[in-house]
Amino acid sequence: MNTNEIKTLLQKYYDGWSTPEEELLLESYFLNGRPDREFAADEQYFRDMKEIRLAEIPVPEDLEQSVLNRLESIQGQSAGSSHRLLYLVMSSAASVLILISSILFLNRRDLVNELSDPQLAYSESLSALEKVSGYLNQGTSGLSDLSALSDAVEPLKKLNSIHRATQELSVLSKLGNALTATHEFAKEK
User: Fold this and answer.
1) Tens of pLDDT along 41-95?
2) What are residue 34's phi and psi, to 5 degrees?
3) SS3 111
4) Which stretches within 55-143 are classed as H helix?
5) Using an 8 Å Cβ cutoff, are 58 and 176 in contact?
6) Model pTM greater than 0.90?
7) How far apart are CA 158 and CA 1, in angstroms?
8) Which value, to the nearest 10 degrees, does the dihedral of the CA atoms of residues 141, 142, 143, 148 take?
9) What is the CB neighbour count within 10 angstroms for residue 97?
10) What is the C-alpha separation between 53 and 43, in angstroms, rounded?
């Protein structure tokens, strides 16, 4: 293969768009052939990847159990409480709306004939809106506790990013252990 083909395949490989066949071509070129000097870093990369693939990475015996325990604790914390809270908030909101609509319906008067004066109609409308506003404020006053609950739940959302970071660090640790073992093995030979 010529230099331009290698550069194109490498670009596709590093961008994540290469096919398995193209990856095999690159691996064969770097591991079995004599690549150009400008590809020295790529050659070392493919050699290291082969060593990592061939290296034995020790897996703790209790890994599966610890993962299952972790998942159970996370699922137990979030699933039940959020559904109950959502149910409570939705039922409270529905109750307030039913209460307001029933009060307005029962207290309504036939004002069409009575309010021919615009000033009187304006004052009656203003009075009705203030009454609705009072009911809404009274109904939503209990929701102020939800902001405190939301603030308490916010740090728990960071657990997911901590969990992902722990997984990535675990993989990096395994790669580091494999590289250390590889270097020790190379020193012995």
Assistant:
1) 998 888 888 888 888 878 788 888 888 888 887 776 655 666 777 788 888 888 8
2) -115, 90
3) coil
4) 63-107, 118-140
5) no
6) no
7) 48
8) 110
9) 13
10) 15
